[in-house]
Amino acid sequence: MKRIESVKNERIKAWKKLHSKKGRDQTGRFLIEGEHLVEEAWKSDWKVETVLTTADDASLFPGECIGVSEAVMKELSETKSPQGIVAVCQKKQWHTPERLKGRFVLLDRVQDPGNVGTIIRTALAADAAGVVLGSGCADLFNAKVIRATQGALFHLPVYMGDLVTWIEALKESGIPVYGTSLQDATPHDQFHSQEQFALLLGNEGEGVQSHLLDAATENLFIRQNRKAESLNVSVAAGILLFALKS
Amino acid sequence: MKRIESVKNERIKAWKKLHSKKGRDQTGRFLIEGEHLVEEAWKSDWKVETVLTTADDASLFPGECIGVSEAVMKELSETKSPQGIVAVCQKKQWHTPERLKGRFVLLDRVQDPGNVGTIIRTALAADAAGVVLGSGCADLFNAKVIRATQGALFHLPVYMGDLVTWIEALKESGIPVYGTSLQDATPHDQFHSQEQFALLLGNEGEGVQSHLLDAATENLFIRQNRKAESLNVSVAAGILLFALKS
Questions:
Q1: A135 to each of A12, A97, A163, A215, B41, how far by Cα in Å?
Q2: pLDDT at residue B82 tops 80
Q3: Which of A213, B27, B103, B108 would give a disulfide with B128, using CB separation of 3.0 to 4.6 Å?
Q4: Domain housing A238
Q5: Which of A225, A233, A234, A245 to mutate to test the interface with B (most CBs of B within 10 A)?
Q6: B128 and B225 belong to one structural domain
Q7: From what superkingdom does this record's organism come (chains A, B) (predicted)?
């Protein structure tokens, strides 16, 4: 196994740039951290280019594997307590399928990386066909998003797209699009379960933009205690996905 | 309005100690931050002792209000971008009611502060009668827990207690206790909606301890895609609370 001991190594410096969206966009690569995520990526059809580890042996990994010092690991890690393994992966771009089918989750400006990641994780669990990130969402390849997905991003298409275009395409395919809104909306428990639908969720503070709600087939809300002002958007996503699908 | 300009002021130094659990436990006080939380506390029956603000005027607040410098605010704040208002509150201890009634959420060693806070927020929205934190949970008065509750902790009893004792008391009151487990459990969608129940959720990595699952009335799980390993615990709490109650 090759080794890199110095944080000044050119490859290490190049990989460190993947901490920023700019670096990821320019190279089409991103980092993942921790044994669990590396394993999930590796089991999937995503391309894992290089594994970097502080362990003595990582011979099980079929691709390039490099032993690194603790100092190098600290440099590449984006967590307080590095887990001793990081991998460089190639981004994958999902193209909108010709024929839309199944359940989708559309996100309008969901900014918190933990929310975006958790919603992707929940969408996979709920057998969704895909998640669509509209503009203004946290970057899919942000370390916190990836961590919150718990690897789900390797098993479910996540599209970046214009939400108006998506809403129109879904409706044309006969898939109802349900916006979420506290106004002019129907309680979600009045909907029957269905095989196909798209759920449109919005920004943590502002919700879904009104022109998107107008484009939706219908808008719904979750009845709740009056003292509660709202639900966390990833919790709402879970409640709605599982209620509408079952 | 009084003013404190120096971070070396004795009261500021004392309040700063509320950042730690030890400091909060010793004094029975805790800090909240941001206009929204201060307002929620103030509207509730919790005791807000002192409000500290960088604003020139805070005359609307009826209690002690102190103007502070940016440097003092930075010292008291636990966020990267201080919001200019912090308040010192008195802890409130909830005593187990004589007669248990309604819906409860029991947490076994849920460690992530964001999860504990989000579950309290969701429990309020789902009209729960209370949340019970067993030992090993994140401290209720931790700043991240409070932030994630979005103020719900001021509107819903949150008990600290022994979960075995709680499970027995709930069962004696005729309230079924549903553990969550991936083994020996029934799919949650096979349960009818009910007015009263308790939901038992566990640690992010390990789930609910087996002696607690054994004590539960019945255990349930959420059917999910096989590629998904699990759901985030606060998402699971939301799905189950809203599915079982409606």
A1: 31, 19, 8, 17, 35
A2: yes
A3: B103
A4: 103-245
A5: A225
A6: yes
A7: Bacteria
